[in-house]
């Protein structure tokens, strides 16, 4: 069980890394974040959450939302309905590449690259009458924080800059692997990404990944087998084109977002969230990864 | 701790899958194997080995040898000397692709695709006076079986059919990432691949991966940190372009070979080897994967 | 100067090829065409037009319209304004590939693949208040046929099936190489493609390519140098991924459309149009190419 | 018919471009050439040769030799034997790319990229007992210069740096499209490339391309149809990935070499050779292209 002192150490030790990464700047709303933020929170298997640094300050969760989307899809669809439309393999390409989508005839490699997450968003849109509201309700529920909101400015701003994601969606549509209206689905997708949560919210939300599918409130969100499978996908594909390095250094299933957050879990043990806005070359939080590495080394814990 | 009955069940349950895969046939020596072989062996953390099916019958370990090669390289080189020349990321391409090697200017994605294993073989060749003998000695030592041998017919046959691997080696040489004589290194590489071992030999050999780097005989082969890192690489890149599916279904770090063998480990718990010559579309043993899946489900064990 | 008998021979000689190609079927309006049509028309440098087969029957000109679009762009823009946004090289990929557009950061290889033609359509949209009307006026003028029309059913049908072209346009937009509203430009683009013309109309329209830029009516549409350049682009990139084979067999600059039409010119000598709806593997009219080959051999004329 | 004054003008006018390109430096023997050389020679259809600048100074013909190789192959093989093994299409990739060779399963796009020229060299090796001697004899014969030689230092130096070409050859061998011993064929190939000729020699040698297949000495080297086809291939694929730009600016079939030479022809009219060692980004002589452009504009001649 980690102590607060260990989390504080993690924050202090990585502080010299500030300045070595780059804040995501493709939309103004993200570019304006204070680059010096450092935060970590851990929710242990007993349900207690501790944190250090700016762990109560909300940030844009961005692609971390892809974990929530896939989880909702697992609740709405049979396994085959999902995996016939999106693969389970690491991509070997950058997160927003079209090359692979074209070569593999419209089937994205996994649900955590943009193409795959758009297919999942398309699935949600098809089965839910108000997917944005349902997503918000769900995340409020599993985090236990009923005040969570979308950041409409970020969502709008991303939509305005969405040409590449539109290209990906239309390309999949041309192969028959995207059914909804592209603009409608993109709007939902960017809302999911724009949610603002702090590290404590996120480590609590992801508790079910460490707890065989049961949330902090004791609800069985997905089955134990689905939880194991979801963790496996996060381990191989959760960190974009840096999944191998992350497994090598940190050794936990995880998911990053360009807002600088990363969630990670040690099944049966704890869920963790770190935040630091500066990103490395693969688009993953630079100091965030280092905090996770430090904690994992100090605890002598990893899945390997 | 698995019982022999569980292993026998695994063998029996997957038998109906025989006939659904394809034996590797690019060289006659491999094509001639009896396709109906099924075998499994487990070495538990207490050091005992049990098996079922044809687990005492030797087969061609092929790419499983890449685990041994990388382990030897870790003994001979500093971390940086290795990872500056080969990456740690899943490839997203088939195991013998040149496309990625060209696009990424001669640096292979990971040490378990052919290109990466050739770089590792090049590293071994540069530091060892008789790499083939040293490899054989090492594997005899860690398996505890001093009668292990290369299959010279297989090694020669692979060398005769080595045009694509030669192309990969020359392409890396053109980028300055291959130093030795291509033919010499290829000969060593194919010898490593041609080693004949049975499932018991292999599960015993891989015991160090489950045992924080210590072999069955109690020798610290690599450090606990290196062991964790090696397992992480196996989890993300050990099954060619089927690593995600394997993690999803089996949930263990593993390495497959086109001879139909797969080794897998649950760190702190056990090392396993399965064998069945017919391969799936990704080149991994079809029934072998199913045996691992069965065992993992029955034991309720995985790393996730 | 070709005689009508030669043209009739061409039609007769290629008739046995009917049935060997495939009519474009991605939209119903094209799929319904009679596959057995064969037509050829030649406009000689003296201004006379002769024809054989179904040369007075109109068909969907499809990508042949890309010659008209580029010509209009040359009238509206400085050279640099065009060639900074689209290249002049053969693509080496199929006509609707996104791979190259992504790898070359949004700049299409040439104005005759879909991506390039969409950039040209974007240029026209930016400078013309009613591009569809202006295009129609222009083609009516240079063909001398004031009754030419768009086929609204075809245009609408293509727009409904335009996901891949939308993907290409959005991808270019993501790289800053597409300025207009994607749907608006697509609608114009599909109108241009939907024009119905017969072989006589088309050979007359393309007369300026054989006549140093002057139309049949004696108007200098583009300069002699521009004409030479346009012919050069047609020779290297006008036949999709079959430009080399076409040059080898036919030896004229040309442009094909999936409606089965092909226009070709021998500068200083004649413009030709052939039509036969069945396409070869590269999407070029199979019997149409053979008619051109026959005429070129019989006349002993080519640009080489 | 061009006058000497025109050629002298061409040399003078392009002199300011010196310094804007880069001499090929991958082997010392090429890097040491004086970068300020400028030369042009023209052989008119009447058989007279005139020149300006350093047109009597020999240089390394490099890839221009690919025209001679293909011509010899046309003498030794049926059409199908050649074109079943190498394509006729522009590549859309750089001259020494492996990507396309892998994607297209070992069949090079055309005989003028390295992969294609290696297949042609493999064909020559299979049918000729002493291909290097036969090539030298042939080029001496058609140039009328019996003192031409290979530059053994260049040939050896290229062979020492041949890893990428070896990779290409082995890759084709892995697909069954390369029969000879790789090293033996590479040695022949580099000898062909190492031939030293001056602009006068080269324009005389290429006279058959302008003269319906007949050499200066009146020998029918290839048929008129083959000549037309060869010119067509040169027009679409002779300038690496700059064929479109070359056609646009110069408007002649041509072939370049990294030694800075370019040959070009106007069928029925003249063959030309220019030389200037500095290359543009596509590997074609920068000032050489400009000289051809000037001559073509001044004469008002091109194939378009």
| N-to-C order of helices and strands of chain A | HEHEEEHHHHHEHHHEHHHHEEEEH
* Global structural class of chain A: alpha+beta
- CATH superfamily grouping of the largest domain in chain A: DD-peptidase/beta-lactamase superfamily
Largest sheet of chain A: 5 strands, antiparallel
Low-confidence stretches of chain A: none
Question: Do you know the CATH architecture of the largest domain in chain A?
Answer: 3-Layer(aba) Sandwich
Q: Report the portion of residues of chain A in β strands.
A: 5-15%
Adjacency order of strands in the biggest sheet of chain A: 3-2-9-8-7
Quaternary organisation of the protein chains: homotetramer
- Shape by Cα distribution of chain A: globular
State the distance separating the first and last CA atoms of chain A: 18 Å
Q: How confident is the prediction overall: mean pLDDT of chain A?
A: 96
Radius of gyration of chain A: 18 Å
Number of helices of chain A: 15
CATH level 1 class label of the largest domain in chain A: Alpha Beta
The overall number of domains of chain A is: 2
Instruction: Report the helical percentage of chain A.
Output: 40-55%
InterPro entries (chains A, B, C, D): Beta-lactam/transpept-like, Glutaminase
Family (chains A, B, C, D): Belongs to the glutaminase family.
Catalytic activity (chains A, B, C, D): L-glutamine + H2O = L-glutamate + NH4(+)
Binding site for substrate (chains A, B, C, D): 63, 114, 158, 165, 189, 240, 258
